[in-house]
Design brief:
By secondary structure, this protein is α+β, with helices and mostly antiparallel strands. It has one domain: Glutaredoxin, CATH 3.40.30.10. It contains 5 helices and 4 strands, in the order E-H-H-H-E-E-H-E-H. Strands 2-1-3-4 form a 4-stranded mixed sheet. Helix 2 packs across helix 5. The structure holds FE2/S2 (inorganic) cluster. FE2/S2 (inorganic) cluster (FES) binds next to helix 1.
């Protein structure tokens, strides 16, 4: 499995936020999304580099709320939903997110290019 090819300060990132029935209704991923939107709004540089995208279901519903972060290739639409091969190519799956881990995801993974080794998983 490839490690995410995130370079500090050099990448655009897409974060897929699951809003499927389990992550959205049971685990209230919308609350975490609102928190992340506020964090991005307070940091304009980071806000320009990160796109939050709703995703229907990763198929790991019991582990939610689930997210997936990946660098966006130059020329790629950061709002476009990636195919499964793209998801499988990077180790960017984040299960069981909470307010603290979402904050870290933006600060450490997206801002400084350091995936959260203690919680990131293969998809
Ligand atoms: S509802 Fe989120 S992984 Fe299925």
């Amino acid at each position: 499995m490839n490690e995410p090819k995130a370079k500090p300060g050099a990448s655009q990132f897409q974060i897929l936020i699951c809003d499927g029935p389990s992550c959205g209704l049971t685990f209230e991923s919308d609350v975490l999304r609102e928190q992340m939107e506020k964090q991005l709004g307070a940091d304009p540089e980071l806000g320009k580099r990160v796109t939050l995208v709703s995703y229907t279901c990763f198929g790991r519903c019991g582990e939610g709320p689930n997210m997936y972060a990946r660098p966006v290739v130059e020329g790629e639409d950061p709002n476009a939903e990636p195919d499964l091969d793209t998801l499988a190519a990077y180790r960017g799956f984040y299960p069981g997110m909470n307010e603290a881990s979402c904050k870290r995801l933006l600060e450490e993974h997206c801002k400084h290019g350091r995936p959260l080794a203690d919680i990131v998983d293969d998809y």
